[in-house]
Design a protein that fits this description.
Length: 181
């Protein structure tokens, strides 16, 4: 099989420059949130990939994707996807180390992180806090771009985590979400 050729990235220099500028603002200041909307196939994901390629190692990018699972979407799918990608990128031991005390809560969604914390009525709140703690600890090392794709398919639990992140995360973090308008 040959390499798949990508089409040239054209007509998006303004959007790319805006996003790169926002990443610089995050690195110099504090958290920001950006929603990118558009119809399917318009290039939302491609824009993020191009910016990620330009940023290289200066920013740690974590990507989670929501899935179209019909009328009963599974809870936390995008969070699980993001954690799985993070473990693939950094290794389970390193992610567990960075997560610190939040590791047990996160292990409920990513078993590679070790023994999961016992679930309770407060488990949902602790899980949201664990996600924020992990992102903030990663951002203490270098800016983080947390990308959640296809938020229009997000389940209520994922939306709760995202809302909590938007309102509480501190440090150089860009929360970037895409959706179909």
């Amino acid at each position: 099989m040959g390499r798949q050729r990508r089409s040239p990235f054209v007509g998006r220099t303004g959007a790319e420059a805006t996003l790169l500028d926002l990443v610089e603002q995050v690195a110099d200041g504090g958290p920001r949130t950006l929603l990118i909307g558009g119809e399917a196939g318009v290039g939302k994901s491609r824009l993020i990939e191009e910016v990620q390629g330009r940023l290289g190692e200066r920013v740690h990018t974590i990507v989670g994707r929501c899935l179209d699972s019909g009328s009963q979407p599974a809870p936390y799918v995008a969070v699980m996807d993001a954690l799985h990608g993070l473990v693939s990128d950094l290794g389970a031991e390193r992610v567990a180390s960075v997560a610190g005390p939040a590791r047990g809560e996160l292990a409920r969604l990513e078993p590679a992180l070790g023994p999961a914390a016992d679930s309770s009525d407060l488990g949902r709140s602790r899980l949201m806090e664990a996600v924020v703690e992990l992102v903030e600890r990663l951002a203490a090392r270098r800016p983080v771009m947390l990308v959640v794709e296809d938020v229009h398919w997000a389940d209520p639990s994922t939306l709760d985590v995202l809302g909590f992140c938007v309102s509480t995360v501190q440090g150089p973090v860009l929360l970037l979400m895409t959706y179909r308008s």
